[in-house]
Specification:
The strands form two sheets. The protein has a three-stranded antiparallel sheet, with no helix packed on it. The chain has a single domain, classed as Immunoglobulin-like, CATH 2.60.40. By secondary structure, it is mainly β. The chain has no helices and five strands.
């Protein structure tokens, strides 16, 4: 919460999905109470083999990342039977 789209970065390297948030603390503003601290974060997720990232959406402060695991194609192959006479 409290991050804008420009302050978030999502990277995918092999099976490692990493989400980083960088906020700069505005020293010129004074607050009576600040519920959300301005700090950086990084969260990493190891994705299973075959998982694909379709995209990401930031709506009302909630980041949603769309993942899909495609169904493997069923390969049916006919094997000829040879006779040895």
């Amino acid at each position: 919460a409290g991050f804008a789209r420009e302050q978030l970065e999502i990277t995918l390297e092999e099976n490692q999905l990493t989400i980083r948030g960088r906020q700069s603390d505005d020293k010129s503003r004074q607050f009576l109470h600040r519920g959300i601290a301005a700090r950086q974060f990084q969260r990493s997720f190891l994705l299973a083999d075959g998982m694909q990232v379709l995209g990401a959406d930031l709506s009302n402060g909630l980041l949603a990342i769309d993942l899909v695991r495609p169904e493997p194609e069923r390969l049916v192959r006919r094997i000829d039977i040879m006779s040895r006479d």
